[in-house]
Amino acid sequence: MGWIIVMFDLPVVEKLERRQASRFRLDLIDLGYFMLQESVYVRNCVSQEKYQQYLAQVRSIAPYKGIINAFFITNKQWLNSVSMTLVKPPKSRYCIENSAPMPQQMTFW
User: Fold this and answer.
1) What is the pTM of this model?
2) Which of 3, 20, 49, 79 is a plausible cystine mate for 63, CB 3.0–4.6 Å?
3) What is the DSSP string of 16-35?
C-alpha cells in the first residue's frame, strides 16, 4: 500500500500552454488525484501493478511540453511526512507543524 505522487512544471506562457496545463490538472483530478500543493498531486496506490497503470494514465494525458515527475512512496513513508504551514509575523518567523492532518488512505472492498 502506498501513494503515487505526481509533480510537474509546465510552461504557461502562451495561451495553448495555459490550456494544456489546466487540462492536465483537471484530468489528474478526474483520475482520482488530489492537490497536495501547487503542481503536486497525489493518490493512493495499492500495488506496483497499479502504479504502472497510473503511470500509463499520466503519460497519456501529459501535455507536449514541460517536466513531469512521478514516484511511489509507501504508506509508512506517507505517515512519517510532516505538513508545515509557515507564518511570518513581524520581526520573526515561526512554523506551525501538522497544521492540517495528512489524508488517510482509503480501502474499498
Assistant:
1) 0.76
2) 20
3) HHHHHHHHHHHHHHHTT-EE
